Every structure is written in structure tokens, then in C-alpha cells.
Amino acid sequence: MGREIDLLANYPRTKRNVEERGATKTEAVRSVARKFGQEFFDGDRQYGYGGFNYFPRFWQPVVPTFQNHFGLTAASSLLDVGCAKGFMLHDLAELIPGIAVHGVDVSEYAIEHAMDDMKSHVQVADARVLPFADNSFDVVISINTIHNLERDECAQALREIERVNRKGAFVTVDAYRNEQEKERMFAWNLTAKTIMSVDEWVAFFDEVGYTGDYFWFVP
Fold first, then answer.
1. Residue 167 contacts residue 7 (beta carbons within 8 Å)
2. Which residue, 2, 24, 42, 185, has fewest beta-carbon neighbours within 10 Å?
3. Helix (H), strand (E) at residue 140
4. All domains of the chain in start order, with CATH
């Protein structure tokens, strides 16, 4: 199995008001958010991002970390599972000229509104059944995506990530290390259907045969 490593260490952190967010997250709100449509990306803040727009300050500091960790070059290929509008892929392509990037997302809205230069590189697809042959990509990355599936479906997605990568993978998932973090996690959660402790996630990765690297989102 892979290792726990924070490849998003250089991603800008924002201060989160978990208590305020938790007070507004009803099941009705979560139901709307889990459609991953216009409301989630560009609608009212209660349903998600409140405007999902490109800013280079987010992913550009992270790309060198991915590049060094996976040895990415112009000859490499990379798949982003849960690519949304393709922001990370855009920065990868810009900072590593020649790299072959591709992305999939379950959201038709996100793919329709992808960055112009990424439109030919992204498509609507389900993480549980990736539309690619075995070993299609050198690296597969999935940030805060697979936990939006039920446990059994999450296992399918991890096996698919394992199937289509040749050299490595990296996923981040909602998790907690103690009861305080667990309480904050469930108050913060908007779309995740599978949330476990870090130890439970590690056991789960081993159970389903996922051998890539991983890290946690903890609000």
C-alpha cells in the first residue's frame, strides 16, 4: 500500500467557521448540493462554493509538489477524477508543458463550464466505472471526491483508480483522528457519504487493494 503524505501542503488554507456552517447544513441543503449542479458550484454559498472560479494562487503552488513526488515530465500522463471545471489540469498543463492531462467528473454542469483550454481534455464520467483501459495513465489523482460515494461505491472507485494507473495515485478524503475532529467533520460535511477515522481509511484502502498514496481533509 502507499503512504500518508500531504501533497497539498502548499494549497492555500482558509479559516473555516465550522459552527456557523454546521448550523445551516440541513439534509435538504445536502440533497441539493449532492446533485453537483449549478447550485453547488455557482449558486448560493449554502449549497457549496458560492462561485467556483479559477485563481492561479490555488493550484499553481501545488503542481511542483505533484511534479517532484511523481516525477512528472512532458512525457507523463495524468488523470484527475473529480476534475470539476479543470482548474488543476489547466495549471498542470501550463507548468509542465507537454504533459497529457485528462479529467472526469460526474457533474455535467462542471464539464459544460470547464476552462476553455481544458474542454477537450475533460468528460462526464462516473468514478465507479472509469471509461479507460487498464494502465491508461501514469498517475491518477482524486481530491475530495471518492468520499462522496457510499462505502461500497467508494471501494469501486478506488479499485478503478488502481486499475487505470501505471505508476501511482493520490487521493484525499474526509477523515478525523479524534472525537473533536469527528464532531467538526460531521458538522462541516456537505456532500460526503463515506467518512471514517484515519485508521479506518487505511484499513479500507488495504481491504480494497488500493496501493496509491493518500491524505486527509479535516476542517
1. no
2. 24
3. strand 137-143
4. 60-217 (3.40.50.150)
